[in-house]
Structure formats: structure tokens, C-alpha cells
Design goal:
This protein is 38% helix and 19% strand. It is an alpha+beta fold. The protein binds a DNA duplex through helix 10 and strand 9.
DNA sequence: TCTGGGGTCCTAGGACCC
DNA sequence: TCTGGGGTCCTAGGACCC
């Protein structure tokens, strides 16, 4: 059994890099990508980071700075980013099928069975390959545990002489500890905003301090996660490597509205649309549910915040958009209060059941023929929407209102997923 | 005026059972 | 006055991730 060895391939400033792919004029300029409703900063170019714009910053607080410094803003274009992401994933899968897609911009590769003699050179080759074929800059961290691989990739971005590649496994202990000592505790994978102050209060300020924390103490301070983190920092792989795509365990779809509303019809349209989108994902996941939930809420940032929720149950597991939406709209009626200004709606599908294991209820009078009719109807809708574009076939209730939809004033064209938006090239 | 969206896992406490 | 020990299941809340 070979020693575990992982590479983390991490796209640099991913959403910004995707926008720059079609706007090379934005190279070397400060660029940010904003979340739904152009609310928060979710990606920053290095130049934007240098201006002191933090991740997650509310856009409205920085409008002045954006204007003053000429920061170019984009509304998030997730269709585009998803498309670029899958191109990169296929490049990585060609290197090794032992690839775990961790997020839209990060993948782990299991290197233990690959025949690599010079890891630095290998990392540089992966980097230039992805840059050339997908147009996206990446960083590569190589280490015997995933936590160390994450740390190595992050360090390789911060220390210019590493040129985007850091292999920790082959270093002398003193050298790798130097990199750990330069990594602040809040930058360790698994340490978030609550644990970081707790650890600092215990004189644990860097990744190296955490590496040397006795295991029982780590357990006391942070539970099982803490012990795992310490082991991983010491080079013992604890976290599972899961190359095969993991089926989702729950699905959620929620939106903050473009504007507040008190109207039931608007909420009904939002809940129906969110349910339809979640049900598409449910069917892609080959799953069914017997429970669905919803909540509608007022703005968290205003006094008198209210959140109203409801749950529905189905005697027979379903993935039928219409059935789910009808039940959730009924449930909405039971909790709706006309005097509130709603700002957000969400639907939840917890506890997904594989659609191969359907348990029909003895007490239920659902006709089995009806079940297959529903499946066929959903298949037809999904096929049409795949072929002719999302929302080609939709529920009438979705059209009651569009006013809840978030604003995206600054979105880029769908360069890769819409014929009308293909970039044009002219040769003079 | 204006603050995202979508997930996973762990833990503690209560209900219930023998 | 005394009032077990252990197990399971469920839920809510907390913490983390990108």
C-alpha cells in the first residue's frame, strides 16, 4: 500500500478569472464579482484584494471605493462558471481518474499510485496545462494529507517565489514547519470564525501551533474535528478521499428578493419557481422525497425580523414538481401573514431517498399508473428544458409575478452557454 | 436605499424504551 | 426518603466549508 499523497488544484480568484477569460482587457485591473442582488463580494482579483476589499463585503459599503479606484464589478454568472469548471475537471480527470471534485474551483487528486519523480515539475506542468487549455490560473499544493495539501496550495499563492506550486511531503521537517508557522490559525481548513478566537485565547496562533497541540487537548477544544485536524497537520491522512460523485443528501433553493413584498401571489410565484428548480435537481440526483419544507422571511437587517416556516409530508415518495409545488403553496397559506414585508423565500428537500427504493404506503390509494404518468411527465418537461433552455416549460404560478427575482444589473453575457452570446471575432 | 446561496457534519438534550 | 443504567431516535442549533 503506497503512502497517501494528495494534490489540491485550486483555481485562483476563480469567478474573476472566468470573467477575465472573455475580457482580457481586465488583466491587471481590480475586478470583483458580486452575489445575487449584487449584494456581497464573492470573488476578488489580486488588485481588488490589495485595495483592502474583504471577501463577503457588502457591495453598498464599497461603492465609493469601487468608483474611486475604478474597480470593475460583475453580477455572478454561475452558468458561465459552472461551464468553465467542468472543462477544468475533465482536464484533471485525464491526468488521473482518482479525482475528487471538492467545489466549483477546487479538486483533490490522489497521487499515491502515479509514477511521479519530480513533484514540483509535475505541479508546474499541470498549472501551465490548465492555463493553456482552459485559460484559468491555478495553484497546486501537494502533501500527504488533504489539510496539508490545502495549506500548501494557499501558501503557494502567497509566496511569489513558489510560482503557484508547493510540495510539502518531500521537504525537510524544518522547512515544512516554516510554511506552517507562516499560516495563521484562521487560514487552516476547518478553523472558522468561532474556533479561531478560542484557539488564539489558548495561544494557538498558527498552523504550526495547532500541529503541536496534544490530541486530547484538541478533542477538548474542538471535538473530533480538532483531533482530525491535528493528525492531518502531522501528515496522517484522516479525511476520506471520495472520487465517485456523492449523491446529495438534501437540496435547498432559496432567494433574497429584488424588492420586499407583502403579496401572497408574489410569494406563491417564488415558492413555485424555487420548487421547480429544486425538483429538477432532485430528479438529476435520481432521488425522491417524502418531506418538503419552506420558509419565508423578512429582511434580517431590519428590526422585527420574522421567519415563518412549514413542512409537508407525502404518503408516497415523489419527485413531481407539480405535486411538490402544490403542497408547498398550500402550506404557505397556513403560515402567510399579510401584514409583513417579505424579503426572502426558500424551500428545502431533506432526506433524499434513492428512486430505486420506493416504499409505497399500504394505506395510500395512489394508483401505480399515476406514479409512472408523473415520471413520464417530468421526463418530458426535463427533456424540453434541456433542449430549448431552462424555463421553456414552466408552471403557470411561476408567472404570477417576476418581481421577486433578484437583480443582476452587472451580469456578463453567457459566453459559453448561449448561441446568441458567443463572443464575436473580427479579422481586419 | 443597498448585506448571497447551497451544502455537510457534530453535539446536546429530550422522549422513549427495556 | 428514596427515585438505576443503558440504548436509540429525533430535533434544534452550532460550526464548518466554498
Amino acid at each position: 500500500m503506497p503512502q497517501p499523497l494528495f494534490a489540491l488544484v485550486d483555481c485562483n480568484n476563480f469567478f474573476v478569472s472566468c470573467e477575465r477569460l472573455f475580457r482580457p482587457d481586465l488583466e491587471n485591473r481590480p475586478v470583483v464579482v458580486l452575489s445575487s442582488n449584487d449584494g456581497c463580494v464573492v470573488a476578488r482579483s489580486n488588485e481588488a484584494k490589495a485595495l483592502g476589499i474583504p471577501m463577503g463585503a457588502p457591495g453598498f459599503k464599497y461603492r465609493d471605493l469601487f468608483r474611486r479606484e475604478g474597480v470593475v464589478q460583475f453580477s455572478a454568472n454561475f452558468e458561465l462558471y459552472g461551464d468553465i469548471s467542468s472543462r477544468i475537471i475533465s482536464l484533471l480527470t485525464a491526468i488521473t481518474p482518482r479525482t475528487e471534485v471538492y467545489s466549483v474551483d477546487e479538486s483533490f487528486l490522489d497521487l499515491s499510485a502515479l509514477d511521479i519523480t519530480d513533484y514540483q515539475a509535475w505541479g508546474r506542468r499541470v498549472r501551465s496545462d490548465i492555463r493553456q487549455k482552459a485559460g484559468i490560473p491555478v495553484s497546486v499544493g501537494i502533501a500527504p494529507s488533504k489539510t496539508l495539501a490545502k495549506l500548501a496550495a494557499a501558501r503557494s499563492k502567497k509566496e511569489a517565489e513558489l510560482e503557484g506550486v508547493l510540495e510539502i511531503a518531500g521537504l525537510a521537517a524544518g522547512q515544512s514547519d516554516l510554511y506552517l508557522s507562516r499560516t495563521a490559525i484562521e487560514d487552516v481548513w476547518g478553523v472558522g470564525r468561532r474556533l479561531a478566537p478560542r484557539l488564539r485565547a489558548n495561544n494557538i496562533a498558527t498552523a504550526l501551533d495547532l500541529k503541536h497541540l496534544p490530541l486530547p487537548r484538541a478533542g477538548q477544544l474542538m471535538g473530533v474535528h480538532g483531533r482530525q485536524m491535528v493528525l492531518e497537520l502531522n501528515g496522517t491522512a484522516c479525511l476520506p478521499f471520495t472520487p465517485e460523485h456523492q449523491a446529495h443528501k438534501s437540496i435547498m433553493r432559496g432567494r433574497t428578493f429584488g424588492e420586499e413584498t407583502g403579496s401572497f401571489a408574489v410569494l406563491e410565484a417564488a415558492i413555485t419557481s424555487l420548487t421547480a428548480a429544486a425538483a429538477v435537481r432532485l430528479r438529476q440526483n435520481n432521488s425522491l422525497v417524502t418531506t418538503a419544507g419552506l420558509f419565508v422571511a423578512t429582511s434580517r437587517h431590519k428590526p422585527g425580523y420574522r421567519r415563518l416556516e412549514a413542512t409537508v409530508h407525502f404518503a408516497v415518495a415523489t419527485a413531481d414538481s407539480g405535486q411538490l409545488a402544490a403542497a408547498l403553496v398550500q402550506a404557505l397559506k397556513t403560515v402567510y401573514q399579510p401584514n409583513l414585508k417579505y424579503y426572502r423565500a426558500a424551500i428545502l428537500l431533506p432526506e433524499l431517498i434513492p428512486n430505486t427504493a420506493v416504499q409505497t404506503s399500504l394505506l395510500d390509494d395512489t394508483d401505480p399508473k399515476q406514479f409512472t404518468a408523473s415520471q413520464r411527465r417530468m421526463e418530458a418537461i426535463d427533456n424540453l428544458n434541456d433542449r430549448y433552455g431552462k424555463q421553456t416549460v414552466r408552471y403557470a404560478a411561476e408567472d404570477l409575478s417576476r418581481s421577486w427575482q433578484p437583480k443582476k444589473h452587472l451580469i456578463s453575457p453567457r459566453y459559453t452557454s448561449d448561441w446568441q452570446s458567443l463572443p464575436e471575432v473580427s479579422l481586419d
